[in-house]
């Protein structure tokens, strides 16, 4: 019975994937990407909703009080979860800033949109959901971290484009110069998270006849993990319990100096948690302003992270590998006009490529065939809706980091990882071994499930559905 629940969801998705396969090369797929016709109403029949998408950096899924973190408090994220749907099995297709961000914008895998790592530039032929929404009458803004290689693009369909180029596009936590619609502009606030929130609130407050879409992309909580002055030392007295497999010298090994991390892991981890609390506070400020303006009910608010982060698990720091700590992200959707049973946790597996088709679907706009994600509207409407049977993860070469290219398939029970070079395959039972410490390759248990997992991986890599 469980497998049957998954059969129906991807009928539309499979048709899209088959259409892509028929088109062939990526360029052919993009050439056939026609912008949908304007829509008059949303999927629930009411007036078209406003949209706010909030994206954070390196925020892993289990660092919210809503999911039981031992000391981090995130009341604003908890509020979104209580008033919406928290997806506890949300994953990225590539656990790296640039590819993940391009996947959120396009609804495509990295191999399709072309931003395979932090070195491959954004291709202006890519079509974003912002462009489609603009064509359908939305006022649009991109505010925050762009962080894709190459020059800052002239994003089609964006009325207001605020970003930064300092530190290779990562931005600075303090006194970060901005690029506002192509013009270098000093920050109005000392702390970047507050500045981006100020600008987002100013956009939301504008008098307009059209619905709006705001893409708010925070620097937080990326390295250097700096909190604002008033939250420094917030967690100084907390006893930090680091993973048992972590080497105390992990910051000096396996190329970790490339991440710019020096000093005790616990020091950086405390800063990370404090910067996270600061971002949550700013999210609360934006939510409160929506309430004051009377916009909350007809505004979709989605919060997500671009990838997770290792804090010593698997003796690693940073992300990139296909383990849970890196590929699993926080993902919360609040939309009162659609979600009739708020406060629930969705167990279905979803991915970052599902954002774009979901927003278009809610707005009543046809989903382009070139998008590889699927709409989450059925899950938002019903606890019984199916999710993915398996998800595909891909990591491409990213010089100078010494992480071998690899791909993985993750089901509700198992994960299978294949490396291009340097490492042997790995297989884990996610249910009995959530920390992924016992590789089942070569064991009777592993041999029993391996053929199906390998078959799934090949099918998904070829653009098929399982």
Short description:
Helix content is 28%, strand content 18%. It is of the alpha/beta class and 466 residues long. The protein is globular.
Give an overview in words.
With 466 residues, this protein is of the alpha/beta class. The chain folds into 2 domains: 2-388, Alkaline Phosphatase, subunit A; 404-466, Arylsulfatase, C-terminal domain. It has 13 helices and 17 strands. Strands 1, 2, 3, 4, 5, 6, 7, 8, 11, 12 and 13 form an 11-stranded mixed beta sheet that branches. Strands 14-15-16-17 form a 4-stranded antiparallel beta sheet, covered by helices on one side. The model is unreliable at 1-32 (pLDDT under 50).
């Amino acid at each position: 019975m469980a497998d049957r629940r998954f059969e129906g969801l991807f009928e539309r998705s499979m048709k899209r994937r088959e259409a892509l396969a028929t088109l062939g090369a990526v360029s052919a797929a993009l050439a056939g990407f026609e912008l949908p016709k304007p829509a008059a109403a949303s999927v629930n029949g009411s007036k078209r909703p406003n949209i706010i998408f909030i994206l954070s950096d390196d925020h892993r899924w289990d660092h919210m009080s809503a999911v039981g973190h031992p000391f981090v408090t995130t009341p604003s994220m908890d509020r979104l979860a209580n008033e919406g749907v928290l997806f506890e099995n949300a994953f990225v297709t590539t656990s790296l800033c640039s590819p993940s961000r391009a996947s959120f914008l396009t609804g495509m895998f990295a191999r399709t949109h072309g931003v395979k790592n932090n070195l491959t530039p954004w291709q202006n032929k890519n079509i974003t959901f912002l462009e489609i929404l603009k064509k359908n009458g939305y006022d649009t803004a991109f505010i925050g971290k762009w962080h894709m290689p190459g020059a800052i693009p002239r994003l089609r369909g964006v009325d207001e484009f605020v970003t930064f180029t300092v530190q290779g596009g990562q931005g600075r936590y303090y006194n970060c110069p901005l690029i506002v619609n192509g013009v270098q502009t000093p920050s109005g606030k000392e702390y970047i998270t507050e500045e981006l929130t100020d600008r987002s609130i100013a956009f939301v407050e504008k008098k307009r006849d059209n619905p709006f879409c705001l893409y708010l992309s925070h620097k937080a909580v990326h390295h250097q993990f700096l909190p604002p002055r008033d939250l420094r030392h917030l967690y100084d007295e907390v006893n930090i319990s680091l993973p048992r497999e972590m080497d105390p010298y992990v910051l000096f090994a396996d190329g970790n100096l490339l991440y710019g991390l020096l000093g005790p892991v616990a020091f950086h981890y405390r800063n990370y948690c404090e910067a996270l609390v600061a971002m949550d506070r700013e999210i609360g400020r934006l939510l409160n302003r929506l309430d004051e303006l009377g916009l909350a009910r007809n505004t979709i608010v989605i919060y997500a992270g671009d990838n997770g982060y290792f804090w010593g698990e698997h003796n690693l720091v940073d992300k990139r590998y296909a383990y849970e700590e890196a590929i699993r992200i926080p993902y919360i959707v609040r939309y009162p006009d659609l979600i009739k049973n708020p406060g629930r946790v969705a167990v279905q597996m979803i991915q970052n490529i599902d954002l774009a088709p979901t927003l278009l679907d809610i707005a009543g706009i046809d989903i382009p065939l070139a998008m590889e994600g699927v709409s989450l509207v059925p899950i938002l409407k019903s606890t019984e809706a199916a999710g993915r049977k398996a998800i595909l993860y891909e990591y491409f070469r990213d010089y100078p980091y010494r992480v071998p290219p690899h791909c993985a398939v993750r089901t509700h029970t198992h994960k299978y990882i294949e490396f291009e070079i340097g490492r042997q395959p790995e297989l884990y039972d996610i249910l009995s071994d959530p920390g992924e410490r016992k590789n089942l390759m070569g064991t009777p248990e592993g041999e029993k499930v391996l053929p199906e997992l390998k078959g799934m991986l090949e099918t998904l890599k070829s653009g098929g559905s399982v």
